[in-house]
Amino acid sequence: MKSSKAQITAKFHKIPALRFEDQKLTSFSGLLIFQLLFTRINLKNRLKKCFTHLKASPIFGRHLIVVLLIVHLLIGFRRLRELDYYRDDPMVLRLMGLRKLPDVSTISRALSQMETEGVENVRQLSRSIVIEGLQREGLPRLTLDFDGSVQSTKGHAEGSAVGFNKVKKGSRSYYPLFCTVAQTGQFFDLHHRPGNVHDSNGAGPFMLSCLSEAKVRLPGAVLESRMDAAFFSQDSISIFNRNHVKFTASVPFERLIQLKEMIERRKRWRKIDRQWSYFETAWKPKSWKTGYRFIFIRKKTKKQRKGMLQLHLFEPRDFDFDYKVIVTNKSESAQSVVLFHNGRGSQERIFGDAKNDAALDVIPSKRLAGNQLFTLCTMMAHNLSREVQMLAAPRAVSRALPKRPAAWVFEKLDTLRHRIIQRAGRFTKPQGELTLTLSANQAVRKDLLHFLDVLNKACLLYTSPSP
Are 410 and 389 in contact (CB under 8 A)? Predict the structure, then answer.
């Protein structure tokens, strides 16, 4: 039905007077879905058990500080000081189970007094929550990717160091090693490190820990992994082989000088498509005990020819192709192996989303344990935003595609905030029944009711006794 211009347009000139009073108004009505999710996974009680070795706080326990940090990140704030802008929000208070939020100084003090055992317990809990989601979904194949990501500090935070930092050169930083799950886009675990270490520092034990936990807790899943050249070594590769994990790893030319000669001697390359071609061989370096499948790949590229070509001592260089080598224990076609390995770029998107939307790049404390805990909170906020979407929607990918993309179409946490979480509402009690009233927006109503429906069903399944 058409409307006239007079029915649509209106002129407003007067600026309304302002009045501030307690009306039980909330700016975060959509937190209701996370209140249900926290109930489903029993988050608060499980976090409380992480700190049973400490003397209980008379008011704000460490577990409440952790829950508040997760909520703080979910609703879109990055700095601790910004808590003052929602400390009287009734939805946040109800989710926390508090009548009053702690002061910023209380949170800062709790972070500075955090100790290693409590941080380790929270880390194990974070990993367990991810595993429980994977057990529920019953994915037949899991791809665990390993890589590090730089966290810059503005001051001399404990445990930080000056290392490689392409964004803020010369700044002190941390360089944690992350394990992520490609199918769910979640952080599986992390190994915290200073910023001046090589990518492979501590990687072997960390990889073994992640793989062992996954094999024990997810015995029916086929495990596979991808690594870049920084993790290439006989020891790391043997970890995957001994544990029957299918893997691919980029091979650094400077570590094996024979690779350049093998490429330059090669005359016939098998075509994958218009850009990619390859050859492969079963080979092992002289010092290795076991041979592996090495796939040599070249990609056709257009380069401007300006003068002589600058040759490289270890890497093959020419005007027409870029080269790389992959080592693997996979038995599929070379094209499938190349696509699988190239799919590891999705991990960079996980890092980017977590830094932009969940403050993974923020370092709030001068103490190492406090910063480690905050990083775990950012991981959990990111993971829980994915968890709620996994519960609310069916898988978009029903089979394993070569690049192993996420099995769901995930919205970024920032998108969830704009659409659902950051919605104004008012708490009232008509006839004694607690009611949250929102504006009558049909899109918000549809999405919010859908999330609440699936989470209510999940809570019933979670709390019902086993047959």
Answer: yes
- Say if residues 427 and 26 touch (Cβ distance below 8 Å): yes
SS (H, E, C) 130-198: HHHHHHHHCCCEEEEEEEECCEECCCCCCCCEECCCCCCCCCEEECCEEEEECCCCEEEEEECCECCCC
Amino acid making up residue 460: L
Sequence-distant (6+) residues with CB within 8 A of 169 are none
If one counts every other C-beta atom within 10 angstroms of the C-beta of residue 88, the result is 14
Least confident piece of the model among 7-21, 186-200, 290-304: 7-21
What pLDDT score was predicted for residue 460?
A: 58
User: DSSP string spanning 370-439?
Assistant: HHHHHHHHHHHHHHHHHHHHHHHS--S--S--TT---SS-PPPHHHHIIIIIS--EEEE-GGG--EEEE-
> pTM of the full predicted structure?
0.91
Beta strands in 171-316 (DSSP E): 172-174, 177-181, 186-191, 222-227, 246-250, 270-271, 276-283, 292-300
Cα 271 to chain centroid, rounded: 36
Structure tokens at 315: 């890497």
Burial zone of 390 (CB within 10 Å; 0-12 exposed, 13-18 middle, 19+ buried): buried
Q: Give the pair of three-digit tokens for residue 82.
A: 């910004």
Torsion of CA 67, 73, 76, 78, to 10 degrees: 120
Q: For residue range 78-105, list pLDDT tens digits in order.
A: 999 999 999 999 999 999 999 999 999 9
Residue 428's region, left for phi above 0, alpha for psi from -120 to 50, else beta, is: beta
* Helix (H) or strand (E) run with residue 101 in it: none
Is the confidence at residue 465, as pLDDT, over 50?
Answer: no
| Region at 305 (left for phi over 0; alpha for psi -120 to 50; beta for the rest) | beta
Q: CA-CA-CA-CA torsion for 71, 73, 75, 80, nearest 10 degrees?
A: 90
Q: Tell me the per-residue pLDDT of 368-399, one tens digit each, with 9 for 90 and over.
A: 999 999 999 999 999 999 999 999 999 988 78
Of 284, 186, 297, 171, nearest to 238 by C-alpha is: 284
From residue 120, give the alpha-carbon distance in Å to each of 65, 245, 374, 441: 16, 26, 12, 44
49-55's contacts with Cβ under 8 Å and 24+ in sequence apart are 49/121, 50/118, 50/121, 50/122, 50/125, 51/118, 51/121, 53/117, 53/118, 54/115, 54/118
- Between helix 31-41 and helix 368-392 the angle, nearest 10°, is 100
